[in-house]
Amino acid sequence: MKVGPHGHLSYGPSVALGVSVKVPVEAGPTIALASSLLAFEANVDFYGGLLWLVNWDIGTPQIERSGLRMIEQMRRGYGICSSIDNTPGNLFRTDEIADLHAFISVLMLFAWDAYFIPRGTRYFMYFRSNGYIYLVTDEEDIRSRLLKHLAYWKPSGEISLYVNIGDDEVSAV
């Protein structure tokens, strides 16, 4: 895995495969989708991972401040007192899947850009402010398993919106 020139993750020159899922508009289904995303890992053991917030300055300042406040208070529970600007990443241990679910739910509800990289796997999630989640891999078997696991959410095997983030940016994968 590597970070491209515009800060987007990829598996290098290999072909990008993956799944995209539309985030529901309502809070309840959004939180349920977050649970489904993490259940994929729970089925084969959850080994923790990295949640990396990329862009949280989306929407009106009044609403975004409440989202930032939620995340900052949750981070204080881990002893992290620095701002998200200074430390945009959080590592989660194997026993912190419920905590990760809470963090992911908040960023999905506020439509922030973020990555989640599960430890010991060959895929990552990109939560995008356009209302989609992209699960990116370079292995067809993982892509097929993700499509099957997320069937209730009507996933697409199309991830071109991740691959071509921004007209003026270099392709992420």
Helix content: 25-40%
What's the SSE pattern? EEEHEHEHEEEHH
Rg, rounded, reads 15 Å
Query: How many domain units?
Result: 1
Q: Biggest β-sheet: count, sense, barrel?
A: 6 strands, antiparallel
What would your notes on this structure say?
- The protein has one domain (16-163).
- Helices cover 34% and strands 23% of the residues.
- The protein has helices at 27-42, 61-76, 97-109, 140-149, 160-163; strands at residues 2-3, 9-10, 17-22, 49-55, 89-92, 113-118, 123-128, 132-137.
- A six-stranded antiparallel sheet has the order 3-8-7-6-4-5, covered by helices on one side. Strands 1-2 form a two-stranded antiparallel ribbon.
- The radius of gyration is 15 Å and the shape is globular.
- It starts with a strand and ends in a 10-residue tail after the last helix.
Secondary structure: elements and pairs:
Blueprint: E1 2-3, E2 9-10, E3 17-22, H1 27-42, E4 49-55, H2 61-76, E5 89-92, H3 97-109, E6 113-118, E7 123-128, E8 132-137, H4 140-149, H5 160-163
Antiparallel strand pairs: 1-2, 3-8, 4-5, 4-6, 6-7, 7-8
Keywords:
about 170 residues; alpha+beta; six-stranded antiparallel β-sheet; two-stranded antiparallel sheet; 5 helices; globular; disordered C terminus
Could you give a quick summary of the protein structure above?
With 173 residues, this protein is of the alpha+beta class. It is 34% helix and 23% strand.
